Amino acid sequence: MAETLEKTTTKTAEPLFGKKEKKLITDPLNDNNPITVQVLGICSALAVTSLVWPSLVMAVAVIFVCAFSNLFTSLLRNYIPKEVRMIVQLVIIASLVTFVELSLKFLNYPVYKQLSVYIGLIITNCIVMGRLEAFAMANKPWRSFLDGIGNGLGYGAILVMVGLIREIFGKGSLFASSPFEWKIIGPTAEYSINTTTSTLFGWYANNNLMVLSAAAMFIIGIMIWIQRSYNKKLIDVS
Amino acid sequence: MNTRYVVIFVTALTAGVAVFLTSFRQITKPVADRNEEIFNKRAILSAVGDYLGEGVQVKNLKDEQVLDIFDKQVQQVVLNLQGEEVDGMKAEDIDMAKEKKKADNEKRLPLFIFSQGGENFYILSIRGVGLWDEIWGNIALKSDLNTIAGASFDHAGETPGLGAEIKDNSNFPKSFKEKKIFNGGEFVSINVRKGGAIDQNHDVDGITGATVTSDGVTDMLYDGIKNYLPYFNSLRRQGMLVK
Question: A81, A84, A104, B174: which has the highest count of C-beta atoms within 10 A?
């Protein structure tokens, strides 16, 4: 899609956090968003966004993996043989994902149990490998690291936004299946006959379409539409 | 770049990564294993969550308390499909995922007997398939071996908000309470019914949008509990139970 060509031509001493570095973080949030502009990582954006909590944890895990795989790839970029670079990148991503998985097992087993499927999904997330190919292979470590964080954030922001919309309208709750579960609209008992206790908008019936992956497709589509209609940079002049 | 360099680079990288991950796993293994043990025991106890005592909730129990209850109040029995007790094994060491693949004469079933206030609860482990992957659970029966005292479910990869509700929505396991697995003398199990329960004794409400997972739970309950019936019959024959 509208993938921009990144080039860094720096000869003078680089500031640790200058204008360009800032742009690496902010660019993927809007102008070069991995989901809505580059249209990468759609698969997991459809799969995990039915609730906010898994979306949030997925976002954090992707930010971590994206940032560190970018860092390591960039450190090794001059030594990686061109012929096997994809395989090398895959090894780096897979070991980081395994590291995340093992750490979760060690630190918080219930969260590991809840998320193990999604953590594994990160390996197949096109954003991670896309950034390695497009950025880390040609840029210095610190910038690559920032680029990873930026893209992880850009991905995570969309994920959480879609998750918010889907969970509120699909289940009437927020942060379900986490310790902070909070029921906001609709009757309290979700699928049982007992609907006597109700909160705000007790008449609201959950929209079951929102729980299905198809809803994420529509929501992301509408997001792309909105973004393109106000962001002048994304208007296709051809 | 010649082939030799490629081979050396890839070998070194892979070896490095392998050594790092293996040593990290080895260092964290004792804690991770203990975490897993506590997690599993918690799941078993949550099937009898309503009988742990006044105001005691499984999720509020500390890790040590879980192990303590297990040591003091839970008797572990291993059974074969003929309903005979098998010695030399502990029920908590049985991996249901592996047992499922074994031949019938080698299958072992774990049974946890939880005693509280003079009453025994029989906790059965069951395993089946949902929409995407395996689902499993623990069913606690009261000492009449007919009435369900509680249940807990878990899954490997059901969709959040749909199939994953068997675990995430506490109303689902709760709806199994006080249901009966026998109708007269006949084993009927519990039916997770799409569109809502009809038979108040043997049905629970299905999960909207998760018909395949709901049906998976129905099948898992039937097949899983059925395996324990020979043992229950032998208990009845010995007159250990009031029918």
Answer: A104
